[in-house]
Amino acid sequence: MSSLVIVRNFMNEAWPKVLKLDKNKLTGAIPQEIGHLKELLCLNLSFNNFYGEIPQSICNLMNLQMLDLSNNHLTGEFPVALEILHFLSEFNISNNNLEGPIPTTGQLSTFRTSSFHGNPKLCGSLLIRDCSLVEEAPVYIIPAREYRMKVIFSIAFGLFFGVGVLYDQLVLFRYFG
Questions:
Q1: Was domain 3-123 assigned CATH 6.10.140.1580?
Q2: How is the chain split into domains, by residue range?
Q3: How many helices (H) and strands (E) does the chain have?
Q4: What is the pTM of this model?
């Protein structure tokens, strides 16, 4: 069942206060309609297969006290507007692929760094990763010739080391054995 259908089904009923859909193997993007659930206090979509950006409409959930979007495949810029959710007491977006600066003001600055871990492109003072220094990690490509030389060196070193140890044992055995 897609996440959009689930949200629409909730919208046809009374406004839910808690929406816990963690560990349900849900896929797709988190629907923008999630922002219509204005009375929501708890939103847990963790451990699913959601992808795409965190919808800006989540910032409409002004009563939200708990938001857990961890362990999905979310990408894109960190929604700075999340800092207006003043009632958040639990927050976790760890283990996604979000990027950009984490606001240092508002409610978001009060959460532990573990709430943000596993997002290698997030930066800010909470993560001790300066945003001006964040860039793609360089990829080192070793040319085939250099690789062969390193392999040959390693084999030769191991062989000579083994012969040296064996010779040492023979000498020791001759004098003390």
A1: no
A2: 3-123, 140-177
A3: 2, 9
A4: 0.68
